[in-house]
Structures are given as C-alpha cells and as structure tokens.
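S1.2 Input.
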Amino acid sequence: MRAQFVLSEIGVGLRRNLTMTFAVVISVALSLALFGGALLMREQVSTMKGYWYDKVNVSIFFCNKNDAETIPRCSKGAVTAEQKKEIETDLDKMDIVESVTYESADQAFKHYKEQFGDTSMADTITPDQMQESYRVKLKDPEKYKVVATAFEGRDGVQSVEDQRGILDNLFELMNGMNVAALCVMALMLVIALMLIVNTVRVSAFSRRRETGIMRLVGASSFYIQMPFIMEAAFAGLIGGVFACGMLLVGRYFLIDHGLALADKLTLVNFIGWDAVLAKLPLVLAIALLMPALAGFVALRKYLKV
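S1.3 Output.
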C-alpha cells in the first residue's frame, strides 16, 4: 500500500510539473551525453597514443654535401662511412633500442615523391638534397631524449628528430576539444541541478497541504520526502537513458556508418563498441543519483511542514 502511494505521488508530481520535468530530462541528457563523450574522447586519445607512439621512430639524419654550406653543425662535410658505422655500433649497444633501419638518400627521395609528388615543391627537390638516416625503433618511445642526447652534435649528424612531435599537435587539439566538452558539460550540469532543485521546490510547495497532513498523522520525514526524491531520480534516469542513446547513435553514425570515419581514416585505431558500452552504466548511475541527491538537499531547505 505504501509503495503504491509513493508511486501515485510520483505520477502526480510529474504531471503537475510536466514542463519543468521535460527541461530537467533534456538538461540531464545533454550534460551526461557530453560527459560520456568526453570520457570516450579521452580514451580515444589514449588509444591513439598507445597505437601510434608504439610505431613511430627516432630519426638520426646525416649531413650531406649540400648541408656543409648551409648548416653550421655540418661544416665538416658530409657524413663518412666510418661515422655511420660508429653511430650504428653505439646504437646496438643501447638497451633501449629495439631495431635500427638504414634509409639511403635515394630511398628518402622515393618516399618524399610518394607523399608530396603532387605539390609544386616536389619538382625542386633532387635525390642529393635528401639526407641519409637511421630509423631507430625504441623499446620505450618515452626515452627519446636518451638517443637525442647521445647523438645530437656528433660529427656527421645533422639532427635527431622524434616523430612523436608530428602527432603531438593532433593530440593537443583533441585534448583541447575534450576540455571544451567538459566545460560545456559542467555548465549544462549546473543548469540541470538548478532545474532539479527548482522543480522539487515547486512540487513541494504545491503539495504543502498534503505533506502537512502526513506530518500530523505521524508520517516520517523520509516517507514524506521519498516521492519528491524519486520524482527527481526518475526524471534524471530518463535523461540518462537519452544520453546513452545519444552516445550509441553517435558512435554508430560517426564511426561505423553515416560519416563512416572507420572506412575513411583506416590508419586511426578507433575505440570499439565495448568502450562505449562500458561507459553506459556510469552515465545511468550518475543520472539516477545526481538528481536524487539534489532533490534531497532541496527538500531539507524548502520542504517546511
């Protein structure tokens, strides 16, 4: 009987404040969709870092005859066979080095033409302008500075470059987008909480006579407050369900179909459905608990019986 009464009171409260309840649902849905999206974006960046950082190399570029006139560190002339052999020997002695691959000037020129053959600058580059290099695969890409410190400034070495720098700008952009999404999410969350508090307050005010009678006949504070708290929790749960739906549709539309980024960006290791599904229980839990807690706090302040 008590459960039936509580459920009936929830229905009455939702019907009386239908417009505000709808606003709560939309606000909670948008804020939690942004929250889930931010979590997935962070996981995507982490996945891409793990995927790409494991594949990039440290490149040791050697001086060529053209560099002797333009680059001070190559003033002694092009790299010699002895210098290359010495550097290769030193690399083999380093525990952090997994493998070393030699790339000749002709091979570098061929790769350059494959990547930039359609540009106007490609016609001005000749094979003798390209640098020979060692492509060094590290066991731990984070230890790039060990290689840089050991070989930068040595005779015959023009520069030591970590290819991670090419990817860092992309990851910084994605992290910036993630921070922006979190900021918008925080704003939407504040709006949702304000709406929840206001909705609970209005609902409590409109039923102050009933709650007063319940107090007079000996009803506990918990029993009186429960319908209001459950109203807020129910509205939040509906918003959470919509947020989960938006995350699922977003993953389906952006990656698998619609924009089909998985087909267009084959080099990107996108997060799978398991990552999305793993976030849904958290979104639903927050959607249920956040309004309930907000409703409880609002009732302590506004419910006067």
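S1.4 Remarks. The CA atoms of residues 13 and 203 lie 6 Å apart.
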